[in-house]
């Protein structure tokens, strides 16, 4: 739709246990705060009555309605990672770095506007139950979850993150190398490295294992360069990425297991050879982490 000469997107979200009016208000508060400080987010737009959020009902179902400014460009998942320019990858990193810098200073005065911790919302880092036949994978996923949870939660490393930052939630305007980060419904408090790890994993899912070091090295090198242009990145954050990738690899396997061979290219590709790699504790990708951690 168009209003005032600008394109808008009206989003209707069904109400459920996680998506409540209070939860959406907390997300909208964060988006307003981030947008006012130059964050690359879709800006929520008030209705004629000044309200950002409206609750609607249809045939007994409840929906939450929010209008946003339309992001320029197209979904980044439509652009093969190999076709991204170096500048676009840096722009993506800079957008994430700036949002994390904004997050580090974000503390709403009203506790009702706080988003939950990452373990309290559905996301790619939380393993799902598996049948007994997959008990070994389930045990390995829980071991990896414990390894992540053992990490310190220092303020410099832990804050409000997107939590679902895959390329389907990024809009890329290739002409000007500009990105907008969409769909903050699952935002939660977690390690900033989680957003970086999920971007890297998603970029490489459809890449054959033998091609991941080269593709992943280029992707992450430019991503981190852009990130560092907006926010300092301690070596420990980069060195923790393999731990988050290990958890993602196992947790996503548990989540797609029941839907494998369902016709979705991403889901169909992900489990292939994954069980054996998980049980062998093989890394998702080896990119020379020490070098990346020290890069400037």
Short structural description:
The protein contains ten helices and ten strands.
Structure write-up:
It is globular, with a radius of gyration of 19 Å. It is α+β, with helices and mostly antiparallel strands. The protein starts with a strand and ends with a helix. It has helices at 21-36, 86-104, 135-149, 192-204, 212-228, 235-239, 241-256, 265-269, 274-279, 289-294; strands at residues 2-3, 6-14, 44-45, 54-58, 61-69, 74-75, 158-161, 170-173, 178-181, 188-191. Strands 1, 2, 3, 4 and 5 form a 5-stranded antiparallel beta sheet that branches. A 3-stranded antiparallel beta sheet has the order 6-8-9, covered by helices on one side. The chain folds into 2 domains: 2-69; 75-294, Alpha-Beta Complex (Aminoglycoside 3'-phosphotransferase, Chain: A, domain 2), CATH 3.90.1200.10.
């Amino acid at each position: 739709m168009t209003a005032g000469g600008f394109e808008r997107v009206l989003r209707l979200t069904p109400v459920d246990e996680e998506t409540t009016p209070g939860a959406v208000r907390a997300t909208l508060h964060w988006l307003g705060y981030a947008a006012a400080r130059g964050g690359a987010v879709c800006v929520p737009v008030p209705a004629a009555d000044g309200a950002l959020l409206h609750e609607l009902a249809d045939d007994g179902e409840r929906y939450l309605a929010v209008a946003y400014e339309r992001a320029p460009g197209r979904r980044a998942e439509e652009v093969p990672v190999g076709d991204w320019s170096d500048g676009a990858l840096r722009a993506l990193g800079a957008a994430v770095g700036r949002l994390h810098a904004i997050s580090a200073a974000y503390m709403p005065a009203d506790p009702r506007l706080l988003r939950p911790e990452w373990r309290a919302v559905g996301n790619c880092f939380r393993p799902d139950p598996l049948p007994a036949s997959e008990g070994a994978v389930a045990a390995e996923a829980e071991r990896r979850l414990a390894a992540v949870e053992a990490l310190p939660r220092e303020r410099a490393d832990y804050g409000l993150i997107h939590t679902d930052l895959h390329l389907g939630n990024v809009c890329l305007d290739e002409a000007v190398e500009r990105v907008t980060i969409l769909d903050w419904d699952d935002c939660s408090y977690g390690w900033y490295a989680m957003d970086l790890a999920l971007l890297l994993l998603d970029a490489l899912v459809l890449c054959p294992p033998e091609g991941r070091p080269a593709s992943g090295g280029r992707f992450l090198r430019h991503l981190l360069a852009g990130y560092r242009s907006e926010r300092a990145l301690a070596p420990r954050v980069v060195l923790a990425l393999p731990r988050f990738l290990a958890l993602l690899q196992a947790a996503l396997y548990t989540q797609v297991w029941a839907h494998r061979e369902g016709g979705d290219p991403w889901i169909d590709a992900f489990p292939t050879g994954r069980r054996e790699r998980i049980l062998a504790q093989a890394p998702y990708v080896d990119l020379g982490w020490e070098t990346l951690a020290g890069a400037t």
